[in-house]
Amino acid sequence: MKILGPRLLEARDLEVRRGEILALELPELDLHSGEILGLIGPNGAGKSTLLLCLAGLLNPSRGKLGFEGRSLGTERERAAYRRRVTLVFQEPLLLDTTVAENIGIGLRLRGVDSAERKRRIAENAQRFGVENLLARPARELSGGEAQRTSLARACALEPQILLLDEPFSSLDPPTRETLLQDLGRVLRDTRCTAVFATHDLMEALHLADTLAVLRGGRVVQRGPVGEVVNHPVDEFVATFVGMETLLVGRVENCLQGTFTLAVGHREIVGTGAVEPGQELTVGVRPENVTLSLHPDTETSARNSFSGRVTRITSRGPFFKVELDCGFFLSAYVTARSREELALDEGREVFASFKATAVHLIRK
Amino acid sequence: MDLILEGIKEALRLLLTLDREVLGITALSLALSGFATLLSMLIGVSIGVVLALNTFPGKRVLISLVNTGMGLPPVVVGLFVSILLWRNGPLGSLHLLYTPMAIVIAQAVIATPIIAGLSLAALQQLPHDLRLQILTLGATRSQMVWLLIKEARLPLLAAIMAGFGGVISEVGASIMVGGNIKGSTRVLTTATVMETSKGNFDIAIALSVVLLALAFGVNAALTHIQQRRRPR
């Protein structure tokens, strides 16, 4: 776990209205020095609105923003603040000039001298792998090269907070993957504080220390990545963090930290502090479910059920298998496993998962 | 037919020998239309920037007015500028009617809405988030406006050329407010009209060739600009 620095940015009672619609309602949000916060949520959840507010580009209808302990009340204070942070948009939005000029534009606007500008342009072009494109007109770049240039332009400013609004969503998967690795490395090396919005959980997991899950303009859960992913506060968050199987049942008995949950006519064993008789929702991640042709007697999995395959859908390198085990259960298998198990719709298989793979959903 | 052929021959001779009168008229046309375009550029681009970057009540009405103005008939402009500058008119005391300045004013009135309308379109074509992107790179508001103008420089240049193309080729307003006075307000179009009515086809054709060459040059440049790719 990364050790975070002092509080850098604080938002209190922020509210943004667009006409009658409440676009954002944020009672409290703090960002600490060195923290990389991932904002996740579906389209329209308020991620971009929040980033525009944090970038000082959108004045909230209510509430205030504080930076390094000082409130940003006046336009003058906000303008000064805008020079300490920067936002990278989904589209690269380069100017019609060379790559080098684009990377140095923010420095030029600040009146940074030519020698320092050259140094930072070279350094950041190198970091994002565009050092060979410096003389090229921005209009001749590919999508990936343009977004690399855009990231280099933002990092050249050495901002105290780097804000990123789905910077990879318009790129093809291989480009996205390499750029994600590069950005992760730069953020680690520079110990930059960052807020990163995405609707792709994998991107957030790769970069973020903490997560905030947004829905309908509100933060529904905020915490360290592990906590949000393993202990989602409700079904919405659970589904969003990839917990495809959600089961509702009644606790039958508890013993030494494990409990048995009656789901329909099946019993599921999980771990956690609960009370007998309690109504519970639990979630199981599909990657924690193992499928086999025979009952699992060899591993420590406490839960093993027979079930029938109801649907198989391709997820790129693997398949998602949906089962009817008396309750809905989903599992991921590789193409090879699918072949070995001869998985097809209607096939009877055994599904197993450990008691520790059963996550309690706090409600 | 002979008349036309003779006219073309004579026109070529006038052009190739750099005839003083033809050169003088061409230079005056370029100077007046150039100055009118410069004025229209300052006013028109400013109007375009204000309309593109701000939201205020009545903006749509203003945009409609500008768009309507893009098609102002030169004779109507000529009429109103004549009334304004007439000896007993509101600006009569300035004694500008039948002077080169009157032509500049009338042409500026014609070109300003053209440049304003096309500037507005040029700035609106920029990606909407570009403004925010420039601000978040640390620009002040005036730095942002300047960068946006630079970013739209090619379509803005097209707007200016369209304005110039509009005024260099108009005849109605120039003849009404300038009076086609030799050596003072006689420009390419008014001279062509006069020489044609007098039957001097050679000079008329020579003047037309110069006008056509200017029109061709402006259009070639516009086409070149339109065919360029946008940055990502």
Explain this structure:
- The complex is a heterodimer of chains A (363) and B (232).
- Chain A contains ten helices and 20 strands.
- Chain A is of the alpha+beta class and 363 residues long.
- Chain A folds into two domains: 7-234, 3-Layer(aba) Sandwich (Rossmann fold), CATH 3.40.50.300; 243-360, RNA polymerase II/Efflux pump adaptor protein, barrel-sandwich hybrid domain (OB fold (Dihydrolipoamide Acetyltransferase, E2P)).
- Chain B has one domain: MetI-like fold (Orthogonal Bundle), CATH 1.10.3720.
- Chain B is built from eleven helices and no strands.
- Chain B has helices at 2-16, 20-53, 59-69, 74-85, 100-124, 129-136, 141-151, 153-168, 172-178, 188-198, 201-226.
- Classes of the chains: A alpha+beta (363), B mainly alpha (232).
- Chains A and B meet through strand 6, helix 3 and helix 5 of A and helix 6 and helix 7 of B.
Briefly note the structural class of the backbone of chain A: alpha+beta
Tell me the major beta sheet of chain B: none
User: Sheet bearing the most strands of chain A, described?
Assistant: 6 strands, mixed
Total domain units of chain A = 2
Structural class of chain B: mainly alpha
